[in-house]
Design a protein that fits this description.
The protein is α+β, with helices and mostly antiparallel strands and 351 residues long. The chain folds into 2 domains: 220 residues, Rossmann fold, CATH 3.40.50; 110 residues, Beta Barrel (OB fold (Dihydrolipoamide Acetyltransferase, E2P)), CATH 2.40.50. The strands form 4 sheets. A 6-stranded mixed sheet has the order 6-7-8-3-9-10, sandwiched between helices. It is globular and about 75 Å long. The model has no long low-confidence stretch (mean pLDDT 90).
Length: 351
């Protein structure tokens, strides 16, 4: 199997409606050769319709889709040189692993000797060569996932499309396969677009993330940009930012919160009433007077390797903090403390 046959993908103002429902509304994006882009959002946001439009299973109402500059809108799915991996693996139960992996090659009438070589390489790549003669019913969920992956890459596609590829696996196996899938993508250098509603999966697997809402892209950026600096309240809430705190943005890089000022923050709004978005892990609990804002511990929850606090600050505002457990005992409810905010991970949003 060859490396380096990936392509550039351009989606240009794609729109698709079903009756009065706008599934995708004038979406444009580009994916560089070898890059992984995750389409992240809840059910009904348009991410699957967009993916199926790229695959050729859905015909957009308007716009264009190009691979390396050439439009593929009129190209049937089987001739786009894309491979799609679904949440349900759709393996043929009566076929062996080897025959499942080689099915696409047979449909493409690849010579038998060449097909056999490609199949063996694909099986070795996903580490299931020893399972080649088994049937899907004799495999675990993770093994079936590897078969589906081998079948997707054996035809040496230019573009890999993943639709909730790990959704059918339990949590531990899912995390293991996230690592395997990322290694495989990097090894092959495949341009990849994936759909997921799991923000952790998007962060682990992708180079960039496009967060979607109501058929549009709400924000697109690197995993760290999406994680630390959401540009809207929707992105902050959907990606699990625990703290959306009311304050007043003073301009430049300073926000007033609970009677104290925090400088060095990033802002997406003008001066005035605003909301500070910050993750619980970007705040530290210190002794009184040592941080940015004083408060009182209201609730403590042990989470094994970490501890979660709810801290009341001025203005009846509650701040959630998650810290790795220290050698010293955690603070107790009612304890006076001070909170230090990691300013570089603070984002000021419109109130």
């Amino acid at each position: 199997m060859n490396r380096g046959s990936s392509c550039r993908l351009d989606v240009d103002r794609i729109a698709k409606a079903y009756g009065d429902v706008k599934a995708v509304e004038n979406v444009s994006l580009s994916v560089e050769p070898g890059e992984v882009l995750a389409l992240l959002g809840p059910s009904g946001c348009g991410k699957t319709t967009l993916l199926q439009s790229i695959a050729g299973f859905v015909a957009p109402d308007s716009g264009d889709i190009r691979l390396d500059g050439g439009s593929i809108l009129s190209t049937p799915p089987e001739k786009r040189r894309t491979a799609m991996l679904f949440q349900q693996y759709a393996l043929f139960p009566h076929m062996s692993v080897r025959d499942n992996v080689g099915f696409g090659l047979r449909m493409a009438r690849v010579p038998k000797a060449e097909a056999s070589r490609c199949i063996e390489q694909a099986l070795e790549l996903v580490r299931i060569a020893q399972l080649a003669e088994r049937r899907p019913a004799q495999l675990s969920g993770g093994q079936r996932q590897r078969v589906a992956l081998a079948r997707a890459v054996v035809t040496e596609p230019r573009l890999l499309l993943l639709d909730e590829p790990l959704g059918a696996l339990d949590q531990n196996l899912r995390e293991e396969m996230q690592v395997e899938l990322r290694k495989l993508q990097r090894n092959l250098g495949l341009t990849t677009v994936m759909v997921t509603h799991d923000q952790r999966e998007a962060i682990v697997l992708s180079d960039r993330i496009a967060v979607m809402k109501d058929g549009r892209i709400e924000q697109i950026g690197t995993p760290l940009e999406i994680h630390d600096h959401p540009q809207t309240r929707y992105v902050a809430s959907f990606t699990g930012v625990e703290n959306l705190l009311p304050g007043r943005f003073l301009g430049e890089d300073t926000i007033e919160l609970g009677g104290s000022r925090i400088s060095g923050v990033k802002a997406t709004t003008a001066a005035g009433a605003a909301t500070l978005a910050i993750r619980s892990a970007a705040i530290s609990v210190l002794l009184p007077g040592q941080g940015d804002i004083d408060g009182v511990i209201g609730f403590v929850q042990m989470l094994g390797a970490s501890v979660r606090y709810e801290v009341a600050i001025a203005g009846d505002t509650s701040v959630t903090v998650t810290e790795v457990r220290r050698d010293a005992p955690p603070f107790e409810p009612g304890a006076a403390v001070s909170l230090r905010f990691a300013a570089s991970r603070c984002t000021v949003l419109a109130s």
